[in-house]
Amino acid sequence: MSTTEAVSSENGSARPRPTGIYDGAVTEPQTPITDRARDYLNLDSLFTAEELAQRDKVRAFVDARIRPNIAQWYEDAHFPVEIAREFGDLGLLGMHLKGYGCPGRSSVEYGLTALELEAGDSGLRTFVSVQGSLAMSAIHKHGSEEQKQQWLPGMATGELIGCFGLTEPTAGSDPAGMVTHAVRDGSDWVLNGAKRWIGLASVAQVAIIWAKTADGVRGFVVPTGTPGFTATPIEPKLSMRASIQCDITLTDVRLPADAMLPNVVGLKGPFACLNEARYGIIWGAMGAARDSYETALRYMLDRKQFDTPLAGFQLSQRKLTDMVLEIQKGILVALQTGRLKDAGTLHPQQISFGKLNNVREAIAICREARAMLGGNGITLDYSPLRHANNLESVRTYEGTDEVHTLIMGQAITGLPAYR
Q1: Do 206 and 147 contact (CB within 8 A), yes or no?
Q2: Angle CA(335)–CA(71)–CA(85) in degrees, nearest 5?
């Protein structure tokens, strides 16, 4: 039986916590996982030394900084804001962007980073995605030189946090239905409306807000201290608890003319950023799946029933084999998508393939892993149910299963079926 230690919660009270196995942190010897069990097809051979070095750097950070703390952060619904600067020090913020203090790493390196971060927790990977793939990408892709110089260097270091406001209370899968609008008042813009499920908004210094104007949908760079801007965390949540999602209200938010992103008009602006985020999800989901599989495998190897390790039963081996099949296939999908992206030949419809497949399979793996842990699987001593809960959000944001199915369906048939 595990020993216990007192753990202080944020309100100062103490509670007992098991220390035998706590979210993957082990104090007792375990049966080692073989190389074949970790990487059945030797997919590591498909990556360059530089790519593997980036992966190993992030994996070491996750092992040292995230794994020992994530169960507590999740239980307390706490996002550690200080980790933003640590991510910046590692070069993970806007890492696929070039210039303005951004690392300019490859798409595959960014993908491997997302995979390792989500093996720790989806909420922490989501922070990197919101900051780099959404907020920073919007400025980098569509902003003026002055906007890039003003915001990107501080965002790359984690000194400044950004958010991305597109989804609204009544406009999710159909962003064209947004009601947030911006009108000219002299040389200024005045914004009114609401956004929902906006990651990081309550801790951000800058928000990218998409609004309807007389000329079409435009993006605006909004310092969050601007009068009329309010961000309220959405609580309580059953998913993404170690992350922040907010409601935003915009009440007569007055901005200067140069707050508008000058280089894009229409929904193609936010969609270009969403595709960056969707790409990272393809990799990240496999991180959650891999961590859940490895947790279940260790448990099956170490726990005995009827004088036999659980891993020795036929049903256990079938379940583990199915997990390996889907994880290895999912990583191949992610890698091919990344190679196409680095070559400049990736189409948005191909991103939908990976997002739809990998998140759907990852949820199934995490749920099966939870079941294999029996009653212990519903505790935060083990990661699979936490991953499964998080992936319910990942499955919804940046395009639901249904949306990506229809994107693929149109690409296959040439016929749109959205209406």
Answers
A1: no
A2: 65
* CA distance between the termini of the chain: 57
Length of the chain, please? 419
Tokens of 332: 């191949």
CA distance 166 to 218: 11
CA distances from 390 to 112, 124, 347, 362, 394 (A): 19, 11, 27, 11, 7
Query: Nearest to residue 254, comparing CAs of 165, 190, 194?
Result: 190
Pull the structure tokens for residue 315.
Answer: 């049903």
DSSP string, 108-149: HHHHHHHHHHHHH-HHHHHHHIIIIIIIIHHHHHH--HHHHH
In degrees, rounded to 5, the angle at the alpha carbon of residue 257 between the alpha carbons of residues 252 and 262 is: 115
What is the crossing angle of helices 348-372 and 401-413, to 10°?
Answer: 140
Residue 12 pLDDT class (50, 70, 90 cuts): very low
Q: What is the pTM of this model?
A: 0.91
Give me the residue label for tokens 């406009």: 171
Nearest-angstrom CA–CA distance, 6 and 23: 16
Q: 70 near 22, Cβ under 8 Å?
A: no
Are 198 and 247 in contact by the 8 Å Cβ rule? The answer is: yes
Tell me the CB-side half-sphere exposure of residue 331, using CA atoms within 13 A. 24
- In angstroms, the CA 97 to CA 132 distance is 8
pLDDT per residue over 233-277, tens digit each? 999 999 999 999 999 999 999 999 999 999 999 999 999 999 999
As given in the structure block, the two tokens for residue 380 are: 């935060």
Rg (CA), the chain: 22
Residue 1 has a pLDDT of 33
Identify the DSSP state of 260.
Answer: B
Backbone angles phi, psi at 30, to 5 degrees: -125, 155
> 412: how many CB neighbours lie within 10 A of its CB?
9
- Which residue in the list 10, 159, 398, 402 is annotated as catalytic? 398
β-partners of residue 262 are: none
398 is catalytic: yes
d(C-alpha 363, C-alpha 292), whole Å: 10
Residue 237 CA to residue 214 CA, distance in Å, equals 37
Residue 64 · residue 99 · CB < 8 Å: no
